[in-house]
Every structure is written in C-alpha cells, then in structure tokens.
Amino acid sequence: MRALVKMAQGRRRRARAGSSRGQSLFVGSALTPLMLYMMFWTLLPIIWAVLLAFFKYSPKNKGGLFLGLGGGNPFIGLGHFRNMLGDSLEAQKFRTSLKTTLMFAFLVLPLNLAITIPLAVAIEAVRSRIKNVFRFIYFLPTVTSSVGVALIWGYLYHPQRGLFNMVLKAIGLPSQIWLSNPRAFYFGIPLALWAVIFTYLWQDMGYNLVIFIAALQGIPRDFKEAAVVDGANVWQVFWRVTVPLLRPTLLFVCVMTMLSSFQVFDVIQVMTENGRPQDQTRVMVLDIYLNAFRFQRMGWAGAESIILFLIVLVVTIVQLRLLRTQWEY
Amino acid sequence: MTNTAISTRASSTRGALDWRVIRSRLGKVLLYAFLVAGCLGTLVPFMWMILGSFKSSTEIIRIPPTFFPEDPTLENYQTVLNDPHVPLGRYYLNSLIVAVSVVVLTLFTSSLAGFIFAKYQFFGKSIVFGLILSTMMIPFQVLMIPSYLILARLKLIDSLWGLIVPVAVDAFGIFMMKQFIEGLPSELMDAGRIDGASEWGIYWRIILPQLGAPMATLGILTFMFRWNNYLWPLVVITTNERRTLPIMLTWYSGMQYQSYDLTMAVSVLVVVPVLIVYAMFQRWIVQGFALSGFK
Question: For the segment A184-224, what is each residue's pLDDT rounded down to a tens digit?
C-alpha cells in the first residue's frame, strides 16, 4: 500500500518536473511563431506606416534598399504635415475630408443613441417571444453586406425611380435630388451627407440596440420596482434609474460608435462615387484610399492615416474622461 | 408587471373604466405602434430590393415608379445567371474560400494563444498580452498601406492568399479565448498530465473540446466579417475571376449603370444567403456581437 502511494508520488513528481520542462518547451514552440507572425502583420506595418509619413513615397518610383525608402522616394521630414496646413489641392481635399468626417461622426453618434435607446427600452417592455422577433428584425441590416446596403439605398434615393421621392410626392412635398445636389443644405449640412448618414444609421443601429437590450436585462428589477413604490412615474424611472445604470454601457457604445464612424468608407464609396457631389461626402478613409491606391501618393496617404489614428485616439480618451463613472452598482 | 398589478387593484375598487387602465392600455398600443413602425422602416429597404429584382426592365424605369411589380418576372435572374462575364459560382467560391480559411486559421491560432496566455506562466507574459490588446486600437486604415506593400513584396497581390494571410492571427480572438479558457478548471490539465499527456495533447484533447461555445461565436463573427469585407479585397484584387462577392457587386452595378432591375437581382443573390445563415444562427450571432465590440 505504502509502496503504491510512494510510486504514485514519484510518478507525479516526475510528471511535474518533466512537464515543467515540457511546458516551457510547449510555450516557446507554440507561442513564438504565432507572436512573430503577428508582429510581421501588425508591428511591422505600424512602424512602416509611421516611416512612410516622413517620406515622399510612391511605389512607382525606384527607392532605396530599405523598404524602398530614400532614393526616388526622398525623406521630407514633417513635410507632409506642414503641407496639410498649406493650400495645395491635396491639402484642401484633406481638410475637406477631415471636416466631413467630423460632421459625420458627431451627427451619427447622437442620432444613433436617440433611436437605439428608446427602441431598446420599448423592446425590453414587451413579452419575451415577441421581443425576440423584434430583435431579429432590427438586427437584419447589421448582418447585411454594406455594399448591398449602399446599392439598395442608392436605388431608394434615385431622383425619378426611388421610393423616397415617390412617398414625398404622394404626401405633397417637393422631391429631392438626394445624392447629387451640391446646393441643397439642411441645418447647414449638405443633403448628400444626410443621405449617407441615414443609410449608415439604418445599417449600424442594430449593433448598439442589441448591446442596450443586453444591458437593460442586466439591471436588477428591484431598482425599478422600488422607484415605482416610491411614486416615480415612467419618465422618472427612465431618467433617474435606468439611464444612470446604463452609464458604463453608454460609455462603451459611444466609444465604439465614434471609432467606427470615423472609419466609414464602404457605404459612401459605393453610394456617392468617391465623395460626390463636390466632395461633400468625401470622408477621410475615402481620401486615404484614393491617394494611396489611385494616385499612388502613399507617403501622403500614410501621413493622413497617422492623423486619423491620432484623432481616433484623442476622441476615445476624451470620451473615457467625460463619461468616467464608478462601475459597480 | 407592477403597473398592471396596481391598476387591476385600483380598477377592482373604483370600477372598470379607471383612468389608469385606459392609460396603460394606451401606453401599450403606442409601444407596439412604435415598434412596428420601426420594423417597417427596417424591412422596407429589403422589400424594395426584392420587389425591384422582379420588375421588368421597362417597369423599373417607369415614372412614377411602382411599389409592387405589376407582372413579376424572373428575367433578371436569368440574365444574371447566364451572363458569361459574371461567373457567379466562381465569386461565391472565392468568398467561401477566403471566409472559411480565415475562420479555420483564426480559431486555431486564437485558441492556442489564448490557452497559453490563460494557463501558463512565462517571462514577459503581461507585456506581450498588453501589446496584443493595444493593436486592437489601431484603425485598419493605418495598416492598410504597409500591408499592401508587404503583400506586393511577397507577390500575393491579386490573389486570394492576400485576403487570408494577413488576418490569420487575430488579437480580438486571442483575447476572447483567453477570457474563456481562464474560467476552465486547471485540474483538468493536471489530470491530463498525470495520465501522461503532452502539452499539445492537453491542448488538443482536453482544452479544445471545451471550447464549443466561444469557437462558434468567434467563428460566425469572423465568417460574417470576412464575407462582407469590402475595402481590403478592393485594394488587393484586380482580376475578375478572383473577385469576392462585395467587390463583384460594386463592379457589376458600375457596369450596369442604373439598371436597377439587374443590380437588385444580383444584390438579392448576394444578400439573401447571409440573411438565411443569420436566421439559422440568430442567437449565436446576436450574442456574439453584443459580447464582442466587433464591428
């Protein structure tokens, strides 16, 4: 009996000792290639992107030995960034795209919240069977290919054949040239930009909706019941109980919505053919894409992408500060 | 719940036509009206696409337009499916090859790296993991240009490999798998070691079979993301036969400029299969999106 125990102990000790060597061998042999691979496809591109921003780089030119930099692609230091403040055509386009992107992102966020929060509260208030049906339907656009979405909406917006003008005419309003009238402004925002914003909201809203529904389900029912017992009405319960408890979710949603709307590309590129009319829908990623892959100005596009990254970083940090809250309740 | 309880109590004491009952009924009607109106807003664009695809080429350009097709026709689908310049089967296959390969690779690399970060101690672990997480903050557009230049050097431009290779290891996937595997009891691994299993054996035979739920979520999310991805294939692919569905769709609509009958038919062929997959895996997909912050 004792011998058996000893044997078992010995085996276990041997297993441990052996496995400790085996473990570090395993970690080394499995993780190292994965991490090297990841470095190759993320760290290297990041460094390369930063380097590109300081060179006048185009893949057409014959460059130096190191990453094709130098030679025909000369180092220009902060030249691109200084150029962004100047009045060359590409600098003007860049500044237009920056302004458009900011308008886009700062309109999308409040509109998105104004739709998704009431919808989530309403869906939470109905019976669970029907709740799932609603959730299913509202999430349909989110899983649809954004190119498909852009084509469908392009057809909806068509001046003569589209559904929207058909409805406007039916209720006696003047029809609109939604996507290509540079002189139409509403609240100071070009109509074409509104049009792509509506499309983007339609596609993007299901995502935030699902997050809010999940968060609402996580709020303990007792809190609301206690408020009702204390004589609060529906509005008071919503503003004084639900909204404060949603704050952590709200923070997450705000950051994610902002991040993705700063990176909008698909819908706009397809619907407005590269930012028409008169660059009123030319957003930053579109400008970066056109510069890099159509005009082969990759150094310039790289510098733009660095600016995009810095803006995204600053906006995220500001939001984290503004909406900071104690997380537990 | 509470509202109804209070109002029924009130109605029993003060008679059936109590103000509260009316108000709660009215509230309910308004609630459903709001939700149904929202559903209509969500569904009408899909209907516009589907109905448009059944309109004839003369009906689709009629002014004012019709909502329902006056005499529905399959002509558009026949035109699209028989067009020798548009090998639809090829595009489906391309999209499928890319999406499935990325899913398989991502699931393997994420579960393996997630397992190691969750269950082993080694030098520099928290720094490396922190670095991985911080890469999730970087917009894809920053990596896009250098990644393209790397692909060009590897001669992978204009090939499906170029859509697969750069995204085979995924930071978010590693993070998600680590979170899940940390919750699994370490005794499982000890038991395996005592039975003489190697570390690879533990990964393959003990950990992997436990990962059904997170693998399904990560797999479906990755699949949909790759299937719908537009910008990267647009940059990488130039040959018609190598196009994936989204870039085929813009190319085709550009070619058939404003022939919405044909464009909508192709859109239906691209969009509807994804919606069917979504309907089948609804729970996984919705939960996955809610959990992940994946966009």
Answer: 888 988 999 999 999 999 999 988 898 898 888 888 878 87
pTM of the complete model: 0.87
Q: Rounded distance, CA B152 to CA B170, Å? A: 22
Which of residues 270 through 299 in chain A touch B, CB cutoff 8 A? 270, 285, 288-289, 292-293, 298
pLDDT at A327: 47
Question: Which residues of A fall within a CB distance of 8 Å from B246?
Answer: 145-148, 266
Report the sign of the C-alpha dihedral through residues B110, B114, B120, B125, in that order. positive
The predicted-structure confidence for A256-297, as pLDDT tens digits, reads as follows 899 889 999 999 999 988 878 888 899 999 999 999 999 999
Where is A289: in which H helix or E strand? helix A284-289
Residue B158 sits at the vertex; the CA angle it makes with B152 and B162, to the nearest 5 degrees, is 70
* Cβ within 8 Å, pair B267-A148: yes
Q: Do A48 and B146 touch (CB under 8 A)?
A: yes
A residues 34..73 contacting B (CB < 8 A): 34-35, 37-38, 40-46, 48-49, 52, 59, 67-68
Subunit contact A27:B263, Cβ cutoff 8 A: no
A76 Cα distance to chain centroid: 32
Q: Which of B34, B43, B231 sits opposite A266 (nearest CB)?
A: B231
Question: For chain A, which residues make up each domain, given as ranges?
Answer: 1-49, 53-83, 86-143+187-322
Q: Quote the CA–CA distance of A325 and A317 in Å, as a whole number.
A: 14
CA atoms of B227 and B224, how far apart (whole Å): 5
What is the per-residue pLDDT across A108-164, written as a single tens digit (0 to 9) for each? 999 999 999 989 988 988 877 888 889 899 999 998 999 999 999 999 999 888 899
A306 touches chain B (CB under 8 A): yes
Stretch A76-82: mean pLDDT: 88
Does B285 sit within 8 Å of A146, measured CB to CB?
A: no
Between residues B193 and A5, the one the model is more confident about: B193
Domains of chain B from N-terminus onward: 2-81 (no CATH), 85-292 (1.10.3720.10)
Contact in structure between B274 and B228 (CB atoms under 8 Å): yes
Query: Is A23 in Cβ contact with B199 (below 8 Å)?
Result: yes
Q: Do B228 and A289 touch (CB under 8 A)?
A: no
pLDDT at B222 over 80: yes
A305–B146 C-beta distance less than 8 A:
no
Give me the amino acid identity at B130. G
Chain A residue whose CA is closest to B281: A136
Residues in A 151-170 with any Cβ partner in B closer than 8 A:
151-153, 155-156, 158, 160-163, 166, 169
Does the ipTM exceed 0.95?
Answer: no
To the nearest 10°, the Cα dihedral for B235, B238, B242, B246? 50
Pairing status of strand A189-190 against strand A185-186: antiparallel
| CATH topology assigned to domain A86-143+187-322 | MetI-like fold (1.10.3720)
Backbone angles phi, psi at A189, to 5 degrees: -110, 135
Do residue A42 and residue B42 have CB atoms under 8 angstroms apart? Answer: no
Inter-chain residue contact B122 with A27, CB threshold 8 Å: yes
Q: Cα distance from A42 to chain B (closest Cα, Å)?
A: 7
